[in-house]
Amino acid sequence: RWAVNDAVAAEFRRASPTGVHRDRVVFLTQPWVDHRLIAESDYLAHLTEVSAQVRRAGAEFVIRPHPTEPAGRYGSFHVLDSALPAELDSEVLGARLVLGETSTALLNLAAVHGLPAARVIGPLADIGSIALSDSQAALFTQFVPRSVTLDEIDAAVTSSAR
To answer: Is this structure's pTM higher than 0.85?
Structure first.
């Protein structure tokens, strides 16, 4: 079992949400396009599908780009663009639910801040080069145990009411 380091967590927890955004779902992107694992158009199409499922559940869909990505890539979405890590971004901390893939920020938001979180099984799920090691899988199993397909996103949003 993994344990959260209380001293480190206390530093992260000094950041606080600007308010609770009961209808906001934040998706933490990964730089898959920049690593040439997926075409930008395909990744954006996937995020459009995720957005549609979130909106179907009655929530606002917001993207928080990975720090190494150009925020402009997601211009057709509502984007939270901040120099702060997602774990310290007050706009993320107040979210109803945080979605992502293999994001360290997703782990930290769930483990340290206790935010409801789920991994989205996306178009890259079968690519071995981004497969999780046993240790990484154990971290996600412990702190972000919920994985959802596109069809299960609306249920995840509904069950995450804060």
So the answer is: yes
